[in-house]
Specification:
single chain; alpha/beta; 2 domains; seven-stranded mixed beta sheet; 22 helices; about 5% strand
Length: about 550
């Protein structure tokens, strides 16, 4: 495919952007695959490949296909345009399912004919230069005007042979110009209007309609019949398609039809117009299948609500509370009066009870066992489901039904993994509480120093009391014996220091809880992003890719 596109880009006519449109359609189809109806995607890929293939071939030749029903005079029209008896005529058509092709002038059509699938035995090379040199009449000039035309006579589209139907369907999509031949008796037949003309309304610029056998219609009724054909074409959405009343047998209108074909060929726009019509048709089908809503982005507020629901379901508030209480307990034990600190050891550490990672050294712990968090309640699970649905609904608002389904599938595709991933994420998160704050260590040293001072003062005071001369021999400070001052001061200062540190402990606990919450919510954010947000974002990105590339194909 890439080689075809590269070749197409090199052969695009100056001033056109067919290569970019082909590439845009291919990109849109790839992004829509699995998200939009497969039929529309398959059609887009097929048309992109076919357009690239046609551009890679001869730009000097124009493929004109003559199609019609049995008895419409399609083959006689083909013969009249070529001036040769190349196709058998009559009510009963030959049984071959191959088209017949006549090529005017310009060598180099072999690869194009091979691409069209026309066997050599059904090809006739009409050397227009030789004809014109031998025939300087108007017919000779007409031949020169058709130089480069590959005129095909297709099998009958209403044939009872299935192979004929298939051949017509195959070649109709390959021709640069379509000439539909209608019969005065069957011009309103639904077989051609419903199967071919109406579905090709987007290709009106590369179509011509011929009402043949006009000689069999009374002259006073001919114009009214042409007007009725015009009316039917308007109903098919083909208001711009010209109608020619001809009689291939009597030669009526053939010159005008040939001049119309020649003028279109001379304009050198037919191939481009046909390919653009094909590309637009395929892009329009993708557009219709996928909806025309504007590309969207996930709401940050909605993502935040989802992450909050995940955090609650994972037990983040429980862990944050445990971090704060654990910090209060451990820092309080370090800073309280050592004489009573043993009481705090009777209380279990909340984080150890949850078996959560206390710090970088806890990685081994998290790998060995799962955290003991409270099980997710039905209310929390319902909230998670509700937030996931709300996020998907918000993201897909205004999109087509197929994209809405795609976004919803993406949002829930990995929900079964959420609980396990959240447990592992919380277990592996460094809560940053494995070490005491520096100031708590200093306070602990100071507390023991005060205890030591109080003990020394107590022993000194006891010895002096036993000797009965505490007030006489003990050094005095501010009128108070130093040993007694050391005893009382050590105790009072230790208790006072413990009371002052309570405020510091509370502040430290709140700070560490905030840090732990930020880290835990960061872990939850990563899980939510991977399991829900990223899949939904990928769908929205694919939708945006489809919309932008479809717009590239459809732009004027």
């Amino acid at each position: 495919m890439s080689s075809l596109l590269e070749g197409a880009r090199k052969l695009v006519t100056r001033g056109t952007d067919l290569g970019a449109r082909i590439e845009a359609l291919e990109t849109a189809a790839a992004a829509a695959r699995g998200r939009v109806d497969d039929e529309a995607v398959d059609q887009a890929e097929t048309i992109a490949a076919r357009a690239a293939g046609r551009l890679r071939l001869s730009a000097d030749h124009t493929v004109v296909a003559i199609a019609g029903a049995t008895g419409s005079g399609k083959s006689s029209t083909f013969n009249a345009l070529t001036g040769l008896e190349l196709s058998s005529t009559g009510v009963r058509r030959p049984t071959t399912s191959w088209a017949t092709a006549c090529i005017w002038g310009k060598t180099g059509a072999e690869e194009l004919l091979d691409w069209l699938g026309i066997p050599p035995r059904h090809q006739t090379m009409r050397d227009s230069l030789l004809d014109s040199s031998r025939d300087p009449t108007a017919a000779g000039r007409a031949d020169r005007e058709l130089d480069g035309v590959v005129l095909m006579d297709l099998p009958d589209h209403d044939s009872t042979e299935v192979s004929h139907h298939l051949e017509v369907d195959r070649l109709v999509v390959l021709a640069d110009l379509l000439v539909w031949v209608l019969d005065p008796q069957k011009y309103a037949d639904a077989a051609i209007h419903d199967r071919y003309l109406a579905p090709l309304a987007s290709h009106a610029g590369v179509m011509v309609v011929v009402l043949n056998h006009i000689d069999t219609v009374p002259e006073d009724r001919r114009q009214s019949m042409v007007d009725d054909v015009r009316r039917l074409l308007d109903l098919d959405g083909l208001a711009s398609v010209p109608v020619f009343a001809v009689s291939a047998r009597a030669g009526i209108g053939i010159d005008g039809l040939r001049a119309e074909i020649a003028s279109r060929v001379a304009a050198k726009k037919l191939t481009r117009q046909r390919l653009e019509a094909d590309l637009r048709s395929a892009a329009g089908a993708l557009d219709e299948a996928g909806g025309t809503g504007s590309p969207r982005e996930l709401s940050s507020a909605r993502v935040a609500e989802l992450e909050t629901a995940f955090a609650d379901a994972a037990g983040v508030p429980v862990v944050v509370d445990a971090v704060e209480r654990s910090t209060r307990l451990r820092a309080g034990r370090a800073t309280t009066w050592p004489v009573v600190s043993w009481v705090s050891r009777l209380k279990p550490d909340p984080l150890k009870r949850l078996q959560l990672n206390l710090g970088s050294a806890g990685a081994e712990l998290s790998g060995a066992q799962r955290p003991r968090l409270p099980e997710t309640s039905p209310v929390q699970r319902a909230r998670v489901d509700s937030e996931v649905r709300a996020l998907a609904d918000d993201a897909s608002s205004g999109l087509g039904p197929s994209w809405v389904d795609s976004v919803r599938r993406a949002s829930t595709s990995r929900l079964p993994e959420v609980a396990d991933r959240l447990d592992r994420a919380l277990a592996a998160t460094d809560l940053g509480v494995d070490k005491l704050p520096v100031w708590a260590g200093l306070v602990r040293v100071l507390q023991w120093a005060l205890i030591l001072v109080a003990l020394v003062g107590g022993l000194w005071s006891a010895l002096l009391v036993i000797g009965g001369n505490l007030s006489e021999e003990a050094p005095q400070v501010a009128g108070m014996p130093l040993p007694l001052l050391m005893l009382v001061g050590g105790i009072l200062l230790g208790v006072l220091l413990a009371l002052v540190c309570r405020a510091l402990v509370a502040g430290t606990a709140r700070t560490r809880a905030a840090v732990a919450e930020r880290r835990l919510r960061g872990a939850v954010h990563d899980v939510a992003a991977e399991l829900v947000v990223a899949p939904v974002t990928a769908e929205l990105a694919a939708y945006s890719t489809v919309r932008s590339n479809v717009a590239t194909v459809l732009r004027d």
